[in-house]
Automatic annotation (TrEMBL):
It catalyses: a 2'-deoxyribonucleoside 5'-diphosphate + [thioredoxin]-disulfide + H2O = a ribonucleoside 5'-diphosphate + [thioredoxin]-dithiol. The lineage of its organism: Eukaryota, Fungi, Fungi incertae sedis, Mucoromycota, Mucoromycotina. Belongs to the ribonucleoside diphosphate reductase large chain family. This is Ribonucleoside-diphosphate reductase. It comes from Rhizopus oryzae. The keyword ATP-binding applies.
Amino acid sequence: MYVINRDGIQEKVLFDKISSRISVLCEGLDENFVDPAQIVQRVVTDMYPGITTVQLDELAAEIAVDAAVVHPDFVILAARLSISNLQKETHEKFSDVVKALYSDNTHPKTGAANPIVTEEFVKLVDEHAEKINSVIDYKRDFYFDYFGFKNLEKNLLLKIGNKTVERPQHMFMRVALAIHGQDLESAFKTYDYLSRHLYTHATTTLINAGTVCGQLSSFFEVQMKDDSIEGIYDTVTNCARIAKVFGSVGMSFQKIRASGSYIAGTNGTSNGIIPMLRVFNDAARFITPGSRKVKGTFAVYVEPWHADIFEFIELSRQNGEENLRARHLLLGLWIPDLFMKRVEENGDWSLMCPNECPGLDVSYGEAFEELYIRYEKAGKARKTVSAQKLWFSILDTQIESGMPFMCYKDAANRKSNQKNLGVITGSTFYANTMQYADAEEIGSCNVASIALSKCVDTKTRSFNFETLVDIVKIVVKNLDKMIDVNNYVSEETKNSALKHRGLSLGVQGLADVFLMMRYPFDSDEARKLNKDIFEHIYFAALEASNELAQASGPYPSYEGSPVSQGILQHDLWNVKGSDCLRWDDLRAKIKAHGVRNSLLVALMPTTATSVCLGNSDGIEPYKSMLYTRPAHSRDRHVINPHLVGDLIERGIWSPKIKDMLLKDNGSIQNITIIPDDLKKLYKTAWEIPQRVIIDLAADRAPFIDQSQSLNLFSAEPNYGRLSSMHFYAWKKGLKTGMQYLRTNPHEMVVINDNEKETAENVDQEVEKTADNLAAMSCSLDNPESCVSCSG
């Protein structure tokens, strides 16, 4: 049998060479599970004459990853095979890769030169080539597991044609140099932190840094230009430009007149927001940036007083007329407190047109309530309905589609450091950034997430806050620097970024931290650590921003902001900072010099980058101890490596346990051989009381000056459960009460007999007392009365 080597030359297969290569790559893996001879045997069986050595390595990697459910070390072996394969296929010197990205890419039809990186970037690398090349450590490519590497290779590493030409370390250095330019010391430190997986920038930054595109921001908040044809299509154009360069857009539509409104210019009537949203829906469907799978997304927000609100809520339903649906948009509600009060007291709710009742969209709190009630008394409402009728329509759509998102307008504005700029009217597609935007300013955020798992010392089972603070300060300074070097998609975006300098610093791996510390997600220890982590993040972010302000001055719109008046985020929540942090000293420094950034912390989902770095997603618990990961030709099952490690240590990991996990959809609660302490530690999101998830969100919220993407989980949702969760979150003061509602009926959820009885009682209560929401909502003093809160 023969193979085709990397030079294209046919040569005889040397089976000993295959065996030796795989054996070397198995070094350090658990010999009780990973047998190189078995892998070699499968490879030899499946190979064929004329297979290339590149294909041979991929075959071996796929064979290894097929055994991912047996032991996590097979995923490591698969990664080693694939990464070494890429390294053999790419230039070792970063400077050579950059030259190729500039000179070797051509238009596939015309053959015209089509540089991927900028001439300025090439000159920078060429000027310092020897020093830059010497800093890169290619051993760190092997820090990735197979799934993380494959995600990186497919979506993020730069290509010439269809051939990947970057290694992971090349990408990290490209990002670091794009941020810092001639400041090599800072660039090399950034590279070091990225390559050690201490944090990561968002996918938009990883793709665009150093390239001709050069657009580094991820989240954008757009205000409708004007309630006119020109204003609408100008806004569509702005959103399309953002999506084209991998940005994601949030828009508020409550200022747009409702259906049936008079149009003076044409002496006609408006069709309302639904046909217009179909235009945005088609734009979102049409725009796919490049050949990547990372797509820009549009989210639209509307307040529940808008006269078209019922039709808006229906947009994401699965059934109904297609011209009344917009399934490529994410839908969110921007909810004033008054609506929640009316629902709770079973009051009436008035639907209005913003053209006939101006000012509602740009007011909040008492000012909004006074204006709204004045319009009601003046008979300005288009229609009056039961507030609970609208509420149940919202819940019905959430049960079916997981949307609309629940964001609370008054909490978002009362506790905003941008309240001096004006009223915030919506959020983004993750419901985590909340920035001011108007016709002249498009809010934008540079994004990064910290790998919290890197702050845990597993030997001592302690969390290293010094490491966390160090990472935060580096990341804040990097994100701020990106504001100055970014290639902006529009003047409106540039205006906002330079005036307000908002950042979006998030996290990933919180669930991993709890597992590594041996804290069940619903334990008191986890709750305390959760609060401590985010207080340290906010403190360190403020401290870094203050240090930047000492060097460069505060951001231009600083005066009049709460921080400029000595009011920090946790002060707006009436929460006292911990004595272990030097809050008084920091306040004094801020009073003297200000801060460089109006906003600092926003917790986003980190699905893509978490897969890359091998961490749990954002702040979420694991949805299952068994999950799938896309891997080259097909998805593979993976079992939580923390769990496998614990079961091996206890001597109870076996093929039978694996099969039971597969049978029970990733839940260990019904596996009798597994000890109770592990069952408590390894609860899934479906088995954790939602009250716990909301409490954790509320505990960290005083240290998040934007907001947090918060998904809630209910395998068997009903009005009672959802109402309980939403009102609990609202009364906790959260800005984002819920991003998605996750309702997967195939997930295993353990409910004991008492809980089943409670669930039935709740359903009966809903039917009996649909006119009295208080009967469906959890009492904060007695949350055990509802399955959603008690578990």
